[in-house]
Amino acid sequence: MRRLYAFPLSPYCRKVRLALAEKGLSVDLIEIRPWDRAHELVSKNPAAETPVLVEEDGTVVVDSGAICEYLEEVYPDHPLLPRHAAERAEVRRLVAWFDVKFRADVTENILTEKVIRRLKRDGEPDSAFIRVGAANLRNHLEYIAMLADQRNWLAGSALTLADFAAAGHLSCLDYMGAVKWDEFPSAKHWYQRIKSRPAFRAILSDHLPGLPPAAHYGDLDF
User: Fold this and answer.
1) What whole-number distance in Å separates Cα of residue 97 and Cα of residue 100?
2) In CATH, what number is assigned to the domain containing residue 172?
3) 94-135: per-residue pLDDT in tens?
4) Per the confidence metrics, is the pTM higher than 0.85?
5) Pick from 23, 30, 76, 216: CA 20 to 30 A from residue 203's CA?
6) CA 199: distance to chain centroid?
7) What does 50-109 look like in DSSP terms, one character per residue?
8) In angstroms, rounded to a whole number, what is the distance separating the alpha carbons of residues 195 and 201?
Protein backbone atom coordinates (compact mmCIF):
# COMPACT_ATOMS: atom_id res chain seq x y z
CA MET A 1 0.00 0.00 0.00
CA ARG A 2 1.13 3.53 -0.74
CA ARG A 3 2.18 5.41 2.41
CA LEU A 4 2.28 9.08 3.32
CA TYR A 5 4.30 10.24 6.31
CA ALA A 6 2.44 13.30 7.50
CA PHE A 7 1.65 15.54 10.43
CA PRO A 8 -2.13 16.14 10.51
CA LEU A 9 -1.95 19.91 11.06
CA SER A 10 0.66 20.53 8.37
CA PRO A 11 -0.78 22.54 5.46
CA TYR A 12 1.75 20.90 3.13
CA CYS A 13 0.70 17.41 4.17
CA ARG A 14 -2.93 18.40 3.73
CA LYS A 15 -2.27 19.70 0.22
CA VAL A 16 -0.80 16.33 -0.74
CA ARG A 17 -3.61 14.41 0.97
CA LEU A 18 -6.18 16.42 -0.97
CA ALA A 19 -4.38 15.82 -4.26
CA LEU A 20 -4.17 12.08 -3.61
CA ALA A 21 -7.84 11.88 -2.65
CA GLU A 22 -8.99 13.98 -5.62
CA LYS A 23 -7.13 11.58 -7.92
CA GLY A 24 -8.71 8.58 -6.20
CA LEU A 25 -5.38 7.26 -4.93
CA SER A 26 -5.59 5.32 -1.68
CA VAL A 27 -2.86 5.82 0.89
CA ASP A 28 -1.97 4.71 4.39
CA LEU A 29 -1.41 7.80 6.51
CA ILE A 30 1.54 7.43 8.87
CA GLU A 31 1.12 10.17 11.48
CA ILE A 32 4.47 11.55 12.55
CA ARG A 33 5.74 14.66 14.30
CA PRO A 34 8.75 15.84 12.33
CA TRP A 35 10.43 17.63 15.24
CA ASP A 36 10.89 14.25 16.95
CA ARG A 37 13.28 13.31 14.10
CA ALA A 38 12.14 9.69 14.16
CA HIS A 39 14.49 7.33 12.36
CA GLU A 40 11.63 6.13 10.17
CA LEU A 41 11.27 9.67 8.78
CA VAL A 42 14.93 10.70 8.71
CA SER A 43 15.89 7.55 6.82
CA LYS A 44 13.59 8.65 3.99
CA ASN A 45 14.16 12.39 4.22
CA PRO A 46 17.36 13.55 5.98
CA ALA A 47 15.74 16.97 6.42
CA ALA A 48 13.22 15.29 8.76
CA GLU A 49 10.35 17.14 7.12
CA THR A 50 6.92 15.97 6.09
CA PRO A 51 5.24 15.05 3.83
CA VAL A 52 7.05 12.02 2.44
CA LEU A 53 5.32 9.76 -0.07
CA VAL A 54 6.39 6.13 -0.41
CA GLU A 55 4.95 4.28 -3.39
CA GLU A 56 4.12 0.57 -3.40
CA ASP A 57 7.30 -0.13 -5.42
CA GLY A 58 9.41 1.69 -2.82
CA THR A 59 9.78 4.97 -4.72
CA VAL A 60 10.25 7.81 -2.22
CA VAL A 61 9.16 11.35 -3.09
CA VAL A 62 9.91 14.22 -0.69
CA ASP A 63 8.51 17.79 -0.46
CA SER A 64 4.88 18.70 -1.05
CA GLY A 65 5.60 20.56 -4.28
CA ALA A 66 7.64 17.69 -5.72
CA ILE A 67 5.01 15.16 -4.62
CA CYS A 68 2.17 17.06 -6.28
CA GLU A 69 4.14 17.47 -9.53
CA TYR A 70 5.02 13.76 -9.38
CA LEU A 71 1.36 12.81 -8.95
CA GLU A 72 0.43 14.93 -11.96
CA GLU A 73 2.98 13.15 -14.15
CA VAL A 74 2.45 9.59 -12.95
CA TYR A 75 -1.32 9.73 -12.39
CA PRO A 76 -2.67 12.13 -15.03
CA ASP A 77 -6.35 11.31 -14.45
CA HIS A 78 -8.27 14.07 -12.66
CA PRO A 79 -5.57 16.67 -13.47
CA LEU A 80 -4.86 19.44 -11.01
CA LEU A 81 -2.72 21.49 -13.40
CA PRO A 82 -4.20 23.12 -16.54
CA ARG A 83 -3.13 22.19 -20.07
CA HIS A 84 -1.89 25.63 -21.16
CA ALA A 85 1.47 26.96 -20.01
CA ALA A 86 0.22 30.38 -18.89
CA GLU A 87 -2.55 28.80 -16.82
CA ARG A 88 -0.10 26.35 -15.23
CA ALA A 89 2.15 29.30 -14.39
CA GLU A 90 -0.73 31.02 -12.59
CA VAL A 91 -1.46 27.89 -10.57
CA ARG A 92 2.19 27.59 -9.58
CA ARG A 93 2.31 31.29 -8.68
CA LEU A 94 -0.60 30.86 -6.29
CA VAL A 95 0.78 27.65 -4.83
CA ALA A 96 3.98 29.56 -4.06
CA TRP A 97 1.92 32.47 -2.70
CA PHE A 98 0.27 30.25 -0.10
CA ASP A 99 3.19 27.94 0.62
CA VAL A 100 5.71 30.77 1.02
CA LYS A 101 4.04 34.13 1.64
CA PHE A 102 0.90 32.97 3.45
CA ARG A 103 3.01 30.66 5.56
CA ALA A 104 5.38 33.47 6.59
CA ASP A 105 2.61 36.03 7.11
CA VAL A 106 0.00 33.87 8.80
CA THR A 107 0.65 30.19 9.41
CA GLU A 108 3.97 30.60 11.19
CA ASN A 109 2.53 33.32 13.41
CA ILE A 110 -0.67 31.51 14.39
CA LEU A 111 -0.26 27.76 13.93
CA THR A 112 3.30 27.62 15.21
CA GLU A 113 2.57 29.77 18.24
CA LYS A 114 -0.79 28.29 19.22
CA VAL A 115 -0.27 24.62 18.34
CA ILE A 116 3.28 23.58 17.51
CA ARG A 117 4.79 25.27 20.57
CA ARG A 118 2.27 23.46 22.75
CA LEU A 119 2.92 20.08 21.16
CA LYS A 120 6.69 20.58 21.38
CA ARG A 121 6.37 21.88 24.96
CA ASP A 122 8.37 24.88 23.82
CA GLY A 123 7.05 27.53 26.17
CA GLU A 124 4.01 29.78 26.03
CA PRO A 125 2.72 31.25 22.76
CA ASP A 126 3.74 34.80 21.96
CA SER A 127 0.58 36.88 21.67
CA ALA A 128 2.37 39.51 19.61
CA PHE A 129 3.04 37.00 16.83
CA ILE A 130 -0.56 35.79 16.99
CA ARG A 131 -1.87 39.35 16.60
CA VAL A 132 0.38 39.92 13.59
CA GLY A 133 -0.80 36.65 12.05
CA ALA A 134 -4.45 37.58 12.58
CA ALA A 135 -3.96 40.98 10.93
CA ASN A 136 -2.14 39.38 7.99
CA LEU A 137 -4.86 36.77 7.67
CA ARG A 138 -7.44 39.47 7.01
CA ASN A 139 -5.35 40.77 4.11
CA HIS A 140 -5.01 37.31 2.63
CA LEU A 141 -8.73 36.61 3.00
CA GLU A 142 -9.45 39.82 1.11
CA TYR A 143 -7.18 38.59 -1.69
CA ILE A 144 -8.86 35.16 -1.73
CA ALA A 145 -12.27 36.84 -1.83
CA MET A 146 -11.16 38.98 -4.78
CA LEU A 147 -9.98 35.90 -6.68
CA ALA A 148 -13.19 34.04 -5.83
CA ASP A 149 -15.26 36.93 -7.17
CA GLN A 150 -13.33 37.01 -10.45
CA ARG A 151 -12.89 33.30 -11.15
CA ASN A 152 -14.72 30.03 -10.78
CA TRP A 153 -11.78 28.70 -8.73
CA LEU A 154 -8.75 30.55 -7.39
CA ALA A 155 -6.56 30.06 -10.45
CA GLY A 156 -9.25 30.01 -13.14
CA SER A 157 -12.15 27.91 -14.40
CA ALA A 158 -11.15 24.57 -12.88
CA LEU A 159 -10.12 23.20 -9.50
CA THR A 160 -6.32 23.07 -9.25
CA LEU A 161 -3.44 22.65 -6.82
CA ALA A 162 -3.79 26.36 -6.06
CA ASP A 163 -7.11 25.66 -4.33
CA PHE A 164 -5.61 22.77 -2.38
CA ALA A 165 -2.58 24.81 -1.33
CA ALA A 166 -4.86 27.54 0.01
CA ALA A 167 -7.21 25.04 1.63
CA GLY A 168 -4.30 23.25 3.27
CA HIS A 169 -3.30 26.38 5.17
CA LEU A 170 -6.80 27.65 5.87
CA SER A 171 -8.12 24.30 7.09
CA CYS A 172 -5.36 24.16 9.70
CA LEU A 173 -6.34 27.61 10.91
CA ASP A 174 -10.02 26.70 10.75
CA TYR A 175 -9.31 23.68 12.97
CA MET A 176 -8.38 26.23 15.64
CA GLY A 177 -11.32 28.51 14.86
CA ALA A 178 -8.92 31.25 13.79
CA VAL A 179 -10.74 32.30 10.58
CA LYS A 180 -13.55 34.85 10.76
CA TRP A 181 -15.33 33.56 7.68
CA ASP A 182 -18.48 35.68 8.00
CA GLU A 183 -16.45 38.83 7.37
CA PHE A 184 -15.37 37.50 3.95
CA PRO A 185 -18.44 35.88 2.31
CA SER A 186 -16.80 35.25 -1.07
CA ALA A 187 -13.85 33.50 0.55
CA LYS A 188 -16.27 31.56 2.74
CA HIS A 189 -18.31 30.41 -0.25
CA TRP A 190 -15.14 29.22 -2.00
CA TYR A 191 -14.05 27.32 1.12
CA GLN A 192 -17.49 25.76 1.50
CA ARG A 193 -17.17 24.36 -2.01
CA ILE A 194 -13.73 22.95 -1.25
CA LYS A 195 -14.84 21.60 2.11
CA SER A 196 -17.80 19.80 0.52
CA ARG A 197 -15.67 17.76 -1.90
CA PRO A 198 -15.28 14.04 -1.13
CA ALA A 199 -11.50 14.56 -1.11
CA PHE A 200 -11.90 16.69 2.03
CA ARG A 201 -13.63 14.08 4.17
CA ALA A 202 -10.50 12.62 5.73
CA ILE A 203 -9.23 16.12 6.53
CA LEU A 204 -12.45 16.88 8.40
CA SER A 205 -12.03 13.74 10.50
CA ASP A 206 -8.62 14.82 11.82
CA HIS A 207 -8.56 15.07 15.59
CA LEU A 208 -5.41 15.71 17.62
CA PRO A 209 -5.52 14.24 21.15
CA GLY A 210 -5.85 17.03 23.67
CA LEU A 211 -6.47 19.57 20.92
CA PRO A 212 -10.04 19.18 19.61
CA PRO A 213 -11.17 21.13 16.53
CA ALA A 214 -13.46 24.14 16.61
CA ALA A 215 -17.15 23.25 16.85
CA HIS A 216 -17.87 24.22 13.24
CA TYR A 217 -14.79 22.51 11.77
CA GLY A 218 -16.55 19.46 10.34
CA ASP A 219 -19.78 21.31 9.45
CA LEU A 220 -20.24 21.69 5.69
CA ASP A 221 -22.80 24.46 6.21
CA PHE A 222 -20.91 26.56 8.73
Assistant:
1) 6
2) 1.20.1050.10
3) 999 999 999 999 999 999 999 999 889 888 999 999 999 999
4) yes
5) 76
6) 13
7) S-EEE-TT--EEESHHHHHHHHHHH--SS-SS-SSHHHHHHHHHHHHIIIIIIIIIIIHH
8) 8
